[in-house]
Amino acid sequence: MNKSFQPDSTAEKIIGGAHTNREHDSASKHVTGAAIYIDDMPEAAGTLHGYLGLSARAHARITALELSRVRDAPGVVAVLTADDVPGVNDISPAGLNDEPILASGEVKFYGQPVFAVIAKTRNAARRAAQLADISYEDLPFATDVKAAMEAGHPDVCPPLTLQRGDVEAGLEKAPRRLSGEMHIGGQDHFYLEGQIAMAVPGEDDEITVWSSTQHPSEIQHMVGHALGVPSNAVTVQVRRMGGGFGGKETQANQFACLAAIAAKRTGFPVKIRPDRDDDMTITGKRHDFHVAYDVGYDDDGRIGAVDATFSARCGYSSDLSGPVTDRALFHADNCYFYEDVRLRSRPLMTHTVSNTAFRGFGGPQGLLGAERIIEEIAYQLGRDPLDIRKANFYGEAGRNVTPYHQTVEDNIIERIISELEESSDYQARRKAIIAFNKNSPVIRKGIALTPVKFGISFTATWYNQAGALVHVYRDGSIHLNHGGTEMGQGLNTKVAQALAEEFQVDFATIKITATSTGKVPNTSATAASSGTDLNAMAAADAANQIKDRLIDFAAEKYSVAKDMVVFEPNRVRIGNQTFTFAEFIEQAYIGRVQLSAAGFYKTPEIHWDRQTGRGQPFYYFAYGAAVSEVSIDTLTGEYRVDRVDVLHDVGRSLNPAIDKGQIEGAFIQGMGWLTTEELWWDDKGRLRTHAPSTYKIPLASDRPRIFNVKLAEWSENRKRAIRRSKAVGEPPFMLPVSVLEALSMAVASIGDYRVCPRLDAPATPERVLMAVERLKAGG
Amino acid sequence: MQPLIRRSVRLLLNDEAVTLDRFPPDLTLLDWLRNERRLTGTKEGCAEGDCGACTVLVGRLIDGMLAYESVNACICFVGALDATHVVTVEHLSQPDGQLSPVQQAMVDHHGSQCGFCTPGFVASMHALWLNDPAPDGDDVDRALQGNLCRCTGYEPIVKAALAAAKVEPSEANDRLTAEVGTTTARLSALVDGARIEINHSEGMSFVPADVDDLAQIYAEHPEATLVAGATDVGLWVTKQMRSIAPCIHISHLPDLKSIESEDGGLRIGAGASYTATRAALAQLAAPLGELWDRIGGAQVRNMGTVGGNIANGSPIGDTPPPLIALGAVVTLRMGEERRTLPLEAFYIEYGKQDRRPGEFVESVFVPAPPEGAHFAVYKISKRRDEDISALCGAFLITLDGANRVSAARIAFGGMAGTPKRAAKTEESLIGQNWSWSSIQAAQGAMEADYQPLSDWRASSAYRMRAAQNLLTRLFLETSGAPARLVSDGERMVLEAGE
């Protein structure tokens, strides 16, 4: 609250409360360049800079690590190897001790960090890092799923099986049966702000680390582990990230630990910021998947049995591959009931960078497998895939239990689909497209309507907890802190809106402050779309603790009943007297009321037993659907997305403008994953698409030429989530599956819609053309 | 005659006059802004001119008129900025902190999420706002081709750009407009016709006084790196950490920027940017305008030069295929000596051009397509805009009165170690009827012309099949059949609230 800000204590409503289109709290700072990211912070005198030296082999034993030229390079202060880690040289988030900060002895992917140079300038460190003389003894390697399967690679963590019913019997008795396979590519996060950490040494064993991370508590834990000091010696701060998308859930650990080790060793602050190429080489990506499916169904397209295996490229270590491949299975049903089902995961070790969290966390790949099955059935039967979808939606009792034995109780997909089908004029457009294709030899069109159901909660049940710290100062201004991190998703804005609503004060009364492990301890990653659900509830809890004390104080001081103390917009009414919020707070301070509280929240009802594959891992589901129309050029495979209509469920939105921004952004990001974003490794196992010149995320001109995005305004979360809203970060990422399927339909026109084009992802122009050629040659 | 020598670069940075007399040749504008000036609103996203997070405005006097263009600071060298006005995001709001109309529209339309790309978008949008009073959705897309956003999906940003366009830049709402008179005067005062020589322990930077001075300096320092738009040389520094010392900056030289009609074609100075040449080339042959719109982003088109694209000898190079097909002739100069050669002869093999030490590309002559000939350029890339071609084919086909091919010039980029003519394909077409069977024969002949590589942009098989299919497209288009996706102005941007 700046000094000139005077809340209107006669207003009928507060400004910037819940369910309003409040702009992002940093919007004005973003547009003027005043928002500070870690690399923008003033550097203390003597600040040193780190850069990493990387492996030039996909798999090899290091036979000699000769770093004298690095040490002798101008400006170099220190060179660190695995031997220089004072604590434990491991940052495995799964606790499997399989992810060294710096490799020693053996390197397991091309680009794995082997040493770190610390120098007086970043440029000096970067140049010196090129001077290492490393000798290798090559070992066999496999970089993709198929090669890893053929080479008999192990899993990086235990696989999961979900089953219900008797899949063999179900397949056996089905009137029709099909099987196939699908390749699904990975994805780089391409957060605009790359990884960065700055560590400042303190007294004794203390250290403060500024890290661009979604998970400050894990950075704290890992830095403590690497330094061999307890967590209470480490403070981690993050004000904002320039994008995260899951890429900073665990991937910031390496840089934070190295900066901390170097800072403790040299006694100077140390900043580490890899360039874009190294960032994309060193850090994990979305998992590629190979899906093998065997399906039994009937003449109406109703699915009886599904037996599917989801094999993932996990990279050289476990990282988060266990829960990611689990979540793939949790979403391999999407909105569909499978009577007899067996879903298996294979988290395969590959000699590539360890794959990690990315918006959707395996869910999108699972869902895409489900939608491929729908397509296969539709083309087999010569039907519109939408008809097949409708025939298989979860329904009433008997058709409402998932493969993990959770009952779907809040299903709204049929209403969403029917409203969207009508508002987008789907049926008429599909007819028109089929007619167009008959008379268009080169350009073909396609249209597809695909649904999304996404489970909300961390499947690691203990992660579903959060804390907040709220102070009210004597002048009535409020300090808000919580355990979530701001990466652009508007979390701070939404939490502050919820807090403003509790206190009935204008948004501008509240100061949002940097996330700090010293203020709220033991936090979970800001991930799984749960940031607002968890942290806004914790902040509301803190507010209610303070309000309870204030009500007690006022009731006693003014001798009124507690229900005569009412928080009204920017004022408090006590009996027949009214004070401005600030006046009342000053009275409470004089009356020695504690004006600070630590709030806490844990998600109720959820449980999950991985051993038995049963439970209720999700508190609720979020739903949505999209219709996409595309045109393809059958001579080159080039395409254009002509129109997209989205209807998406965010419950009762805390901030419709921010939620819509999440949906539009997720759609384009998901569209990139399924179209032009291709990760390409060469025959030496080296990733060659490691910068925007070679890795192509969507541009403004790639967005749909007509893009209608609507919230399902009638939806309310049936659970008591914060003000009946729903999570929004991940679910809309899967809406552009409709783009892939529309491309597929355009290709299928070549075979008169009777052959499933089996268009794999990403559907680059090359894949589209090759699918066209395949169908021209007869399938 | 030895010109006056100055040992400093003088420029305006926002509202401050700055003199720089000691900097290494490879000092980028971005590093200087962030590290030395602490203007941290301008961000590094990729350091290769692809993401636009580092976008700033650079104002120059062109024939006495002040004009601002967007530029990627990450690959722009400080040595190239003499007598310019560098404007960062910090200078776009009013002195009292009031947001510019562009900034306010971004806030109002929720155009920022993580905010890291935002200053770059604001700079690109400000350039559009100043330079195009009535952009439509496609114009905005084009202006933003060089800016990546990973959060918003762009829709709110485009809406903001269109909303800002409804407010005319004025002295009251735009600092640059308010200061145009003083800035023009301040920049004029910096122009003294001097050669600039900067001595630094890491090497010399030269800024020649004029083209004759360039010829002299380069003849004396044939080992020097010529830097025009720096959209390629910039990456030698930021990506490969190569030394470019000594370097000679040439992007400011008016003599190299000339674009003149000359019998039957256009003569383009080697230093003329893509942006500057677009209109004239589009008039010469419409497909060139379409191709130009897909080269890099706006920032790269403002910086990059046709001469540079020719001279760097990339096997892909977007401009050589159509220029070769049109029969372009390049003029090389060393000292006072000039020679000309057909552009296709300039490319000897991968990484090797017919250019002697001390010799530079001075201009290129681009003939107009002959009356009645079919000229087409097809660029195929993974992403439509701001991507390097997987392949780029250019076709100049002349038919006689009997519908026979009397002349054919076909050139491709991305299909060989250099931009290369399809000699066997041409041969198979010449003298034949312009018919489907001739096209099929030519498609077969193409396999003798090229053995393309497989890489991350495309496989060999795709390149060949797509290249062959481009002949089909050409044939269909010459007969008037729709045979490709075109940007047809259907772009709809809904108003907020709809």
TrEMBL record, chain A:
* Keyword Chaperone recorded: no
Record's superkingdom? Bacteria
Q: What are the recorded GO MF terms, alphabetically?
A: xanthine dehydrogenase activity
Q: Where is the signal peptide?
A: none
Q: What is its EC number?
A: 1.17.1.4
User: Where would I find the Aldehyde oxidase/xanthine dehydrogenase a/b hammerhead domain in this sequence?
Assistant: 32-140
Kindly state which keywords UniProt assigns to this record, in alphabetical order: Molybdenum, Oxidoreductase
From the Swiss-Prot or TrEMBL record, give the protein name: Xanthine dehydrogenase molybdopterin binding subunit
Organism listed in the record:
Pseudohoeflea coraliihabitans
Query: What does UniProt list as this organism's lineage?
Result: Bacteria, Pseudomonadati, Pseudomonadota, Alphaproteobacteria, Hyphomicrobiales
